[in-house]
Amino acid sequence: MIHQTPFLRPLLFLIAGIVVQSRWNIPYAVIFCLFFVALLFFVCASIPQLSRRYPFRFLFGFGLFFLLFASASWITKLAWQESEWNLPSGDCLYQAVVIDEPVLKPKTWMCKIRIRTAENPVYQEATGKKAVIYLPLDSLSPAIVPGDCLLFSGQLESSPPYLKRQSFAAAGFIRKNRWQPVKNPDPSFSILIQALSVRRMLLERLQLMVPERQSYALAAALMFGYRNELDKDLQQAFSHIGAAHILAISGTHFTLLFGMLYFMLSFTGNSRKGKIIRQVILLPLIWGFAFLTGFSPSVIRAALMLSIWGIGNAFFFRAFTLNTIAAAAFFMLLFCPLYLYDVGFQLSFLAVISIVLINPYLVKLYESKNVLIQYVWDLICVSVSAQVGVLPLCIYYFHQFPSIFLLTNICLMPLASILLFLIPVSLLLHFLFGSFSGMLFPLNKTLEYFISTVRTLDKFSYGNITGLTIDSQGLTALFLAIIFIVLLLIKKRVVYLYLLLIVVAFQVIFYLI
User: Fold this and answer.
1) What is the pLDDT of residues 12-57, one digit of tens each?
2) pTM for this one?
3) CA 227 – CA 236 distance, rounded (Å)
4) Residues in Cβ contact with 373 at an 8 Å cutoff, skipping those fewer than 6 apart
5) Counting Cβ atoms within 10 Å, is residue 200 exposed (0-12), middle (13-18) or buried (19+)?
6) Separation between Cα atoms, residue 262 and residue 279, nearest integer Å
């Protein structure tokens, strides 16, 4: 398997560097020494007398390991330094720009900001730092949009660990009448702020098309990843039935949209020229959709993987493999090493890895000539494959397991596919021809039916198994147990049964001791 996935080994080297640097904070001097060691190995590997002899074939591999390990340590150290800040003890005056869509909380508006200037005592260290501030509910706060400049006075505190992993250095509540919007003195270009501005314009148009509040909230979340309008009870219903992934823009959305667009462009043919033309049209559209949804880790992962697949498809390569996943993860972590600690990043990659490795074997178990039955079976196989991969993390992070996830996916995924087609088509028609109730009737009815289905599924009292708790050792043991069970079922070798029994025995001994 390793020789078929050239990106897998570099990815593991990169992950090792990120984890070690995050845990032990390697000094710059040691990192530079590792770069020097990597250079020595590469120089030795380039000497013909050594490179041609089998005992010295390890030289290049060791050089690559030290190079990637040192690179990962360096970029991770820089990423963690962004969240370091010796905060002043009292109130300070800051000027900052809003960098993301504000989120409405029960009593406040949460705003993610980047500090531009501050009072002299903290000016040098504060400039450029990211922070999260909570503004009181008043007449001004609902009007804040990304790109706005705020002037506020308050005491910021060190951000909690989950925010530090997103490079946010501080957080704090700003009291009433201690802040105000001001004219942006130097509006610099930001592709993210531009994307959020375009998304806001489309959301305003969508709200005109879908007047019912809950339906609009669902459409906004499903198509654009905007979840501020969703009621808490509806969000909890999605979580209870194992459908939270439908609300989070991820590979599911990109795959459905890509599949529909691919089918619409099938007239270009299957020649090399036709496939290249198709991908030249498709890939900008896919990244345009990623642009509108805000470039979250799951969005970047999905767009990057589809891009790799599309390029491979255009040039007749078998692109959608474990190597594709490893390549996408490698480049994402190279760009932002702290993605490794993002729960969405972990869940999305584990789900895709599990689908790639397990789904082909499940699909082979049954085949029907009935198109509808085969579609349901394929959906079941994909759902089970993905759930197997994310099960340990769902228990570890969320302490629950949705027992009706199969029924949920069978009922909701076809409706999600229809909505992902109806929403952009309805938006396009609305821009071209204005508002006609007959034209928007299918969209509104499908949204209502989708919400009704979610609430019906949520009524199953056994739909969610809660109170599940495991520690990091239990998480490792559960992952190993799942791997050995899958290998035992696929390879049918008794060695995997022995390994499974060893894992179970060690876990039992650990809990007894």
Assistant:
1) 999 999 999 999 999 999 999 999 999 998 888 777 766 566 555 6
2) 0.85
3) 13
4) none
5) middle
6) 9
pLDDT of res. 3: 45
For tokens 């082979």, name the residue.
364
Residue 98 is predicted with a pLDDT of 92
pLDDT at 38: 92
**Residue 50 pLDDT:** 61
- How many other C-beta atoms lie within 10 A of the C-beta of residue 283? 17
Neighbours of 447 (CB within 10 A): 23
User: What are residue 92's DSSP bridge partners?
Assistant: 154
Residue matched to tokens 């969703």: 230
CB 60 within 8 A of CB 40: no
Is the pLDDT confidence value at 224 over 60?
A: yes
Q: What is the pLDDT of residue 113?
A: 93
Q: Are 145 and 98 in contact (CB under 8 A)?
A: yes
Residues in a beta bridge with 205: none
Report the mean per-residue pLDDT for the chain.
Answer: 85
Distances from the Cα of 219 to the Cαs of 81, 237, 446, in angstroms?
38, 16, 10
Q: CA angle, corner 375, sides to 483 and 244, nearest 5?
A: 60
Q: What is the C-alpha separation between 512 and 67, in angstroms, rounded?
A: 43
Residue 461 has pLDDT above 60, yes or no: no
Residue 114 DSSP SS3 = strand
**Distance set, CA 98 to CA 75, 115, 133, 493 (Å):** 25, 9, 10, 57
Mean of the pLDDT values across residues 154-172? 89
Strands of 163-268 (E only): list them: 168-173, 179-182
Q: Say what the pLDDT of residue 2 is.
A: 43
175 DSSP assignment: P
Q: How far apart are the C-alpha atoms of 421 and 415, rounded to whole Å?
A: 10
Question: CA–CA separation, 295 vs 297, rounded Å?
Answer: 6
Taking the C-alpha atoms of residue 376 and residue 382, their distance in angstroms, rounded to an integer, is 10
List residues bridging with 401 in a β-sheet.
465
Q: Which residues pair with 135 in a beta bridge?
A: 109
CA torsion 47-48-50-51 (nearest 10°) is: 100
